[in-house]
């Protein structure tokens, strides 16, 4: 596929467009979390458990990713476990730690809510050439890393 002509944009316009996307995403996350009976933080934590796949995260891993204390993540995990989203498993190498696994039926419920949105995003990506998608992927990856580093440097509370 050949790249389509794109309107010119300044970095300021791109930042404004990104801010609008993030704001809409935050509202959407809140709505989706309500649909599945979770808070946004709990849903975010569950997403990290899903993302980890077979490399089951520890409670400490999740606390660091969600930027909460280990005490707060215990509350999050308690709620997720009561709601049937996760199970806790002993760490095979350290009895003091637990690993967190997603429940397959909970993963299916959350994916069912997200699938129509992801289908629309895939349609949107179809308007871009492979080279443009590579640039988007590079930008998203690098911006995510930069944002995580910024949070680590400037927003850590504990």
Description:
Helices cover 67% and strands 6% of the residues. It is mainly α and 158 residues long. A hairpin with a 7-residue loop joins strand 1 (86-90) and strand 2. Helix 2 crosses helix 4 (70-82). The chain starts with 10 loop residues before the first helix and ends with a helix. Keywords: DNA-binding.
Q: Which characteristics define this entry?
A:
single chain, mainly alpha, 6 helices, 67% helix
Quick overview of this protein structure:
The chain has 158 residues and is mainly α. It is built from six helices and two strands; from the N terminus they run ααααββαα.
Helix/strand/pairing class, anyone? mainly alpha
Share of residues in helices: 55-70%
**What share of residues are in beta strands?**
5-15%
Strand order of the largest sheet: 1-2
What is the 3D shape? globular
How far is the N terminus from the C terminus? Answer: 49 Å
Major sheet size, sense and barrel closure: 2 strands, antiparallel
pLDDT < 50 stretches:
none
The overall pLDDT, averaged over residues, is: 92
**Total beta strands:** 2
Rg over alpha carbons: 18 Å
- Helix-strand pattern, N to C? HHHHEEHH
Number of helices: 6
Keywords: DNA-binding
GO molecular function: DNA binding
Protein name: DNA-binding MarR family transcriptional regulator
Domain HTH marR-type: 1-145
